[in-house]
Prior knowledge:
By secondary structure, the chain is of the alpha/beta class. It has 3 helices and 7 strands; from the N terminus they run E-H-H-E-E-E-E-H-E-E.
Amino acid sequence: xxxxxxxxxxxxLRKYEDELxxxxxxxxxxxxxxxxxxREQGDLSENAEYDAAKDEQRDIEARIEELEKILKNAExxxxxxxxxxxxxxxxxVKIMDMEYEDxxxxxxxxxxxxxxxxxxxxxxxxxxxxxxxxxIGDVVEVETHDGVVKYKVLEIERSK
Length: 160
């Protein structure tokens, strides 16, 4: 089975590459030093510092593996080439909740980069799916557990 492509913006790609570099270059060395120091304290069977350092090492290696997998299957969206006639990944959009007349700004990103607290919604989320392909002035409907929510597209722009 072919692995799913991880759609990333350049910003997301850079963030993951920087994190991977930090983990491989700095964090690995820090943890190796902690393990070495804990070993020097003697009996490892009751050594909390050693156990904690080994747990940290395991977490770092798991995150490195996860990041390498994300980057291996990355497909980067060239935000400068995004068509601003329709909403797509890499766009910033301003939409209005038609019921509450509440305006919201979102950046449409791939699922790997999504972070609703930072206004980044996935193209695979219900709202993201509904918005993809919409134009300024379009009203899209999103099925939620409370019923259908309607959003009007007010603006589409590049995210830079």
